[in-house]
Design goal:
Order of helices and strands: EEEEEEEEEEE
Shape: elongated
Largest sheet: 7 strands, mixed
Number of helices: 0
Radius of gyration: 14 Å
Helix content: under 10%
Number of strands: 11
Length: 121
Amino acid sequence: QVQLVESGGGLVRAGGSLRLSCAASGSIFSLGTMGWYRQAPGKQRELVADISSVGSTNYADSVKGRFTISRDNAKKTVYLQMNSLKPEDTFVYYCKAVHRNRYSATPRDYWGQGTQVTVSS
């Protein structure tokens, strides 16, 4: 089993910055793509950004130029630096990691518990 623990959410004024962290722990064999998603109540979860094990990144259009995703493979941690925050960035942010254990060729997704980000105007 893999556990993901997020931190760094909170309340910030528009134009401010926050940095989210997500650390993976447990029986880790092969961590693949890690990413951040966000979800509003009653809405579908949407991709914010993800990063492959070799550092290739992908961003939602709405955050390009403002958010930066990075990872530290030695620490098994993924980060999301969020700058120039807007009220419409207010969501619960979830970390996701794709992991394959040593006994299976099929990877599976793991999710963190979510962290609230609130941007006031």
